[in-house]
Design goal:
CATH superfamily of the largest domain: Type I PLP-dependent aspartate aminotransferase-like (Major domain)
CATH topology of the largest domain: Aspartate Aminotransferase, domain 2
CATH class of the largest domain: Alpha Beta
Number of helices: 13
Helix content: 25-40%
Bound molecules: pyridoxal-5'-phosphate
Structural class: alpha/beta
């Protein structure tokens, strides 16, 4: 690489083909810098980024406060491991736990580096809680939902309720089972599978990767009740819905009938693009993690936790939850109009706040590629949904720009007679 003083985009793409494992389907763009909701590629071309690093950049790109925090913290202390305490980690733990205290009571935090790891920690904690604190070794099974996405480690991919992610990796674990996703309001049949043998139930407050699927009203609350009846622990996977994405700090808080979990996992937006994840648990459950029972070398390191504190401060200081709600309403209204203008190709808008999607009558990838060619970056969720997960700093004009480009793309796809 160093022998190429100024590699062309084609050279860089060739490096990808040669040296990266071929597990991603990257678009043929090499991004070099970003500011707010805009990014630029090696050719100097500007894009409006409505993917937000897959919901991981709530402050957008190169937010000056986050840049300053990272520079200051890097100059002071980057990493020490959990052999010692560090200041930002402790302040972040308090901040996150306090945000849940009203609904969950006293909480404690375990830090890691990604969503999958946060879910792994939650599964291990649930097991250990039953086995050590409740002396109940029967509770082995962990339940999740069809259409869910919980990560790519062996345990979290087993819990992911989509066959395409599990294919070719078997045999996976025998204790993961997927419940049917409730079809409509009042459909509580999935809950019948939760019994006094259930260790925990894992659910996303809105299924994100599965196609931006919002549970019917009252479902989370009924799930909470069923877990209470059976003694199963309830885990909310807020890896994608957390940190303001749906217009409240936590995704479950924006549900019209909110319910509280025993354990909550978060990653993505928490570090504003810096890898950091957390598992937050009611203290009574968390105390099962005795010294030595679980760990992560980088978990909670000062660089990542300082970044997360700045993300939380900036959400508050810049009114980003309010911005998320307002821009979210504009997005919903715009997506509704697209459904009217482009039926039967465009079927329905889905989601809440700045985690929304447009369900199409076929593969959403051609629409996403065509938007990119017109300078707007979007992603696909669940195969047939065009997903919007922009930075929470997105402006009304930028939402309008994204909708207009998608409008043009859908019109041209319809004109060409494609299903999508
Ligand atoms: C709900 C949910 N859980 C877990 C994960 C896995 O997170 P990570 O890729 O950081 O391991 C994701 C990633 O998309 C997610 O959306």
């Amino acid at each position: 690489m160093s022998s190429l003083p100024c590699p062309s985009t084609a050279d860089l793409l060739r490096l990808g083909a040669e040296y990266l494992t071929p597990n991603y389907r990257q678009q043929p763009v090499v991004l070099v810098r970003g500011l707010g909701c805009e990014v630029w590629d090696t050719e100097g071309r500007r894009y409006l980024d409505l993917t937000g690093g897959i919901a991981a950049c709530p402050l957008g790109h190169s937010h000056p406060r986050l840049v300053r925090t990272l520079a200051d913290q890097a100059a002071r202390l980057i990493h020490v491991s959990n052999l010692f305490f560090n200041e930002p980690q402790l302040l972040l733990a308090r901040r996150l736990c306090e945000s849940l205290q009203q609904a969950l009571g006293p909480c404690q935090a375990f830090f890691c580096n990604s969503g999958a790891e946060a879910n792994e920690a939650a599964i291990k904690l649930a097991r250990r809680y039953h086995q050590t604190l409740r002396a109940d070794a029967r509770r082995i099974e962990v339940l999740s939902f069809e259409g869910s996405f919980h990560g790519r480690t062996v345990a979290t991919v087993a819990l992911t309720g989509q066959e395409k992610y599990r294919a070719g990796f078997g045999p996976l674990v025998g204790w993961a089972r997927h419940l049917p996703w409730p079809e409509r309001e009042g459909d509580l049949r999935p809950l019948e599978h939760i019994t006094d043998q259930t260790c925990a139930v894992l659910i996303e407050p809105i299924q994100a990767e599965g196609g931006i699927r919002v549970p019917p009203p009252g479902f989370l609350r009924a799930l909470r009740r069923r877990c209470d009846e059976t003694g199963a622990l309830l885990i909310f996977d807020e890896v994608q819905t957390g940190i303001g994405r749906t217009g409240t700090l936590w995704g479950h808080q924006s549900d019209p009938q909110p319910a509280a979990p025993d354990i909550l996992t978060v990653a993505k937006g928490l570090g504003g693009g810096v890898p950091v994840g957390a598992m937050l648990a009611r203290q009574e459950v968390a105390r099962a993690l005795t010294p030595g029972s679980h760990a992560s070398t980088f978990g909670g390191n000062p660089l990542a936790t300082a970044a997360a504190l700045t993300v939380l401060d900036t959400l508050e200081d810049e009114g980003l939850l309010e911005n998320t709600r307002q821009r979210g309403e504009e997005l919903t209204a715009g997506l509704r109009q697209l459904c009217q203008r482009h039926a039967p190709l465009a079927i329905e808008p889905r989601g809440r706040g700045l985690l929304q999607g447009l369900l199409l009558a076929g593969d959403a990838m051609p629409a996403v590629h065509a938007c990119r060619e017109r300078g707007v970056l979007l992603s696909v969720a669940g195969g047939t949904v065009v997903r919007f997960a922009p930075p929470l700093v997105v402006s009304a004009a930028q939402i309008a720009e994204g909708l207009q480009v998608l409008d043009e793309v859908l019109a041209s796809l319809q004109a060409n007679g494609a299903k999508a």
